[in-house]
Amino acid sequence: MNSYFVTSNDIKNGPSSNLNITHADGDYLYTPSKKYLDLRSGLWNVSLGYNKELTNRMKARFDNILDNQIPYIDINSYDTPDYNLYASSLLSFMNDGVERSDFKSVTFTNSGSEGVEIGVKISQDFAKHVKKEGNKIIVFKNSYHGTFFGSMSVSHKFFGLEHAYETANNVIIVDPPINEQGLNNILNTIETNHLNISSFIIEPILGSGGSISIASEYLEEIVSFCKKYEVLTIFDEVSTGFYRTGNRFAHTSLKNKPNVVILSKSINNGALPFGAVIIDDYTYRCLEKQNINHFSTQSGNVLGISSAITTLEYYIENEQQIKHNVQEIEKLVYLYSSKYSVEITGKGAMFSIPINDLDKVIRIRETLKNMGILVYIYENIDNTSGITIHPNLLISQKKLEMALNILFRKVAESL
Ligand SMILES: Cc1ncc(COP(=O)(O)O)c(C=O)c1O
Predict the structure, then answer these.
(1) What span, in angstroms and rounded, lies between the C-alpha atoms of 88 and 42?
(2) Rounded distance between C-alpha atoms, residue 331 and residue 327, angstroms
(3) Cα separation of 382 and 14, whole Å?
(4) Which of 128, 147, 163 is CA-nearest to residue 293?
(5) How would you label 199-224 residue by residue, b for 16+ Cβ within 10 Å and e otherwise?
(6) What are residue 275's phi and psi, to 5 degrees?
(7) Which end of the chain, C or N, has fewer beta carbons within 10 A?
(8) pLDDT tens-digit series, residues 36-86
């Protein structure tokens, strides 16, 4: 029996899988006896794979910081050049090639959940600032934004569960739009209730909900409509950020940019707990009047910042290769899903296979695990469920092709 427990797993057990990971390399995780092709990118964060070159670069930077004996700096009280270096590099990465570059300022977090927590607080401060009558937040059905109280309160995935906490739940739930009618329902909801709505928190592709992709033209209209009605748009790009959808971000292709973007996971290839919240000029000006009441001791952890700087440099240097590989990943997923006539959702390097029978989904995951392939499973409160794959963005196409052939064959056999 373990002397530790994993929150959200059964307290008597440790991790949900019995794999004892000893090391990793490239596309693979290793146990003492076997190697596994990781089609989950860790938990969607090791997007550059178990990447020796990146790790070595991080090591060199960490050495420098530790040689200077700075295990910790209090960002509330002191400054170090890396804070500004990273924030300005991230802003220019987000604004690059964009006609109207509105992103203005960055704050640092330790996780995606914390970033969403800040998003919820921004929403409430904004509602006060523009004198809204209420501060409801619109969220999508089956959304997942994390497990802190604020982030849980906007995660539809938890609502009505037997073991649900009493979160604020001050939300309006709308269906992710799949057609014009769906879009119009959302626009009507905004128009009718805008005096009571502070923000719309959006996963541009609902990751945990089963890779439900929202068409760019719908996102464009939603953002534009929200601007008209003084409703903040907060894009949770914790899972879609950093090329997962093919572009730098899911919002990159939009003319209308969200007011707030939340990032984590791939921001530093999962090396340390780290994230960022980026706000635009409009939000900045609103918040100038009132500080956000939020702080965590480890905000701006110096090693976290330096891991993110190293990862961002790597993304920029390898952008063409990453983008090309994501296109190839997408093509291969389409190819093998159609070869075996299996339905898929998602895009880029973020796909799900809806199966809607949890026992079957678990059986397929275990079969694949025994064959050396690791996939993720999703499950929603409306009983939809399936398999999700997030291959690393640089995965070997040959290895992926072999794995997809097995994966789709096994799914097809089970249907
Ligand atoms: C879209 C989205 N938002 C927020 C989170 C929460 O991030 P974290 O687990 O780092 O708190 C996740 C995690 O899976 C996510 O996918």
Answers:
(1) 28
(2) 6
(3) 27
(4) 128
(5) bbbbbbbbbbbbbbbbebebbebbbe
(6) -165, 180
(7) N
(8) 999 999 999 999 999 999 999 999 999 999 999 998 999 999 999 999 999
Cβ(204) – ligand 1 distance below 6 Å: no
Buried b / exposed e across 292-330, counting CB within 10 Å, b at 16+? eebeeebbbbbbbbbbbbbbbebbeebeeebbebbeebb
CA distance 114 to 96: 26
Count of structural domains, the chain = 2
> Do 98 and 219 fall into the same domain?
yes
Atom in ligand 1 nearest the alpha carbon of residue 143: 1
What is the domain range of residue 344? 23-51+319-414
Q: What are the tens digits of pLDDT across the range 358-382?
A: 999 999 999 999 999 999 999 999 9
Q: Is residue 9 part of a domain?
A: no
d(CA 225, CA 295): 32
Q: Identity (one letter) of the amino acid at 355?
A: I
Alpha carbon nearest to ligand 1 atom 3, residue? 145
**Residues 234, 225, 159, CA angle at the centre, nearest 5°?**
45
The answer as to whether 257 is a domain residue is yes
Q: Are residues 341 and 326 in the same domain?
A: yes
Report CA(201)–ligand 1 centroid distance (Å): 13
